[in-house]
Amino acid sequence: CGEAGRAEHWLNRMLARGIAPGVLTYNSLINACAKAGDIGKAEHWLTAMPAQGVQPDDVSYSTIIHACGTRRDPRRAEQWLEKMSAGGVQPSAFCFNAVVQAWGRAGDAARAARWFATMRGQGSQPSAASYSALVAAQVRAGALAEAEATAREMVAAG
Fold this sequence. Notes:
By secondary structure, the chain is mostly helical. Helix content is 74%, strand content 0%. It has 9 helices and no strands. The longest helix is centred in the N-terminal third of the chain and has 15 residues, at 2-16.
């Protein structure tokens, strides 16, 4: 798959020559796979990192979480967010937003709201994008009163 195939080729060459790739190299490969729509391959490389002595970072995880959300696979996005936390990496608002959006696209405003609340509970400050993702989920689900309440809360938060 084009860019991903080239990136994978170079990573394999590095490994074959005893050159230890770093987190940036892996993140570039994960991103290329995700952009090519090959989430399985992106997941493979993320899970291969620790075996090479490289710890995934927030970019490693957020790339896959966002790709799962874009592919309308909210459960998978959610699982990766949970793995991220379990792996000791603090999820950013971007990661939570991707999960909120994914559940919103799936029509599950309650699950989107749960992840919005989890974001806050873990100390991440919701951004305008966070609120917008939740409002969109609520509107899509026909929960207009909740959407209005969330919009008011956003305005009050500044």
